[in-house]
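Sample 1 of the test manifest.
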Amino acid sequence: AQKITQTQPGMFVQEKEAVTLDCTYDTSDQSYGLFWYKQPSSGEMIFLIYQGSYDEQNATEGRYSLNFQKARKSANLVISASQLGDSAMYFCAMRRIDTGGFKTIFGAGTRLFVKA
Amino acid sequence: EAQVTQNPRYLITVTGKKLTVTCSQNMNHEYMSWYRQDPGLGLRQIYYSMNVEVTDKGDVPEGYKVSRKEKRNFPLILESPSPNQTSLYFCASSRQGLYEQYFGPGTRLTVT
């Protein structure tokens, strides 16, 4: 069964420090995409970063990087130099091709608190 | 401005009263989808559409209907809402393929 697991319901990080949010996934597919989305307290969903299953290099987008370990089926999000505005809920998601089209499953999320 | 819009943003209704939540996107995306978000469960896919007149079930389709008559619109229909459908609903769109999705602002639905 396809599944996304985020084992950290909540995390604290000091401002300006780096933080890693864990994500493991389960799939038997060869082709899939892994995504991280941010949900601030205002509620909107914001796309952060994408990693394709065939990509050999880890994705990076500004202060965000994705530590992709395919054999371990993990796709951890690393936020460098945390800022107060990074306080939010973070969701890991996997998009895959199913018989009817593209399906997406999300993890339960990790709430990140950045301390001044 | 590229965006996904949803209406209404907030809705309180009673059990059994049919309702429709509208979703529209202006990015010419083929793919659209509906999710519900519940505490501790993340987002779960209700229905998705690969293109006009092509829809399929997600992981939690029971109690919901959708239609895709135009490329830009993908309404979610609850024909007989029940309290267990109280949730935060998101519409999203994307290009076909393993691409990121663009989300609407969400609709908070309460069924009493």
